[in-house]
Amino acid sequence: MAWICLVAAGILEILWAYFMKRSEGFTLLIPSVITLAGMGASFGLLAFAMRSLPLGTAYSIWTGIGAAGAFVVGIVVLGEAVSPLRLLAAGLIVSGIVLMKLSGGH
Prior knowledge:
Elements: H1 2-22, H2 29-50, H3 55-76, H4 84-103
């Protein structure tokens, strides 16, 4: 259950990052509310997952999901630039997530 909550927390991190961008510096109400609600839910699920997962594993995977997911959303939804170096960096993040999961012992 902790892993499911951790993945959900990471997905919510992608959601709130996207809506933070859409809030235009918290000047638009609806995206701002979605950002804050997403943050709260993401942190809550992360906290729940950390009750049984090691701090380093949980936090690294949570931030990795958020970083890689925000990268993909930026490219696919927001039309941000793609370059070989950015793709390599995203691949390294995903590799780190996989290695952290494999070494977590849970």
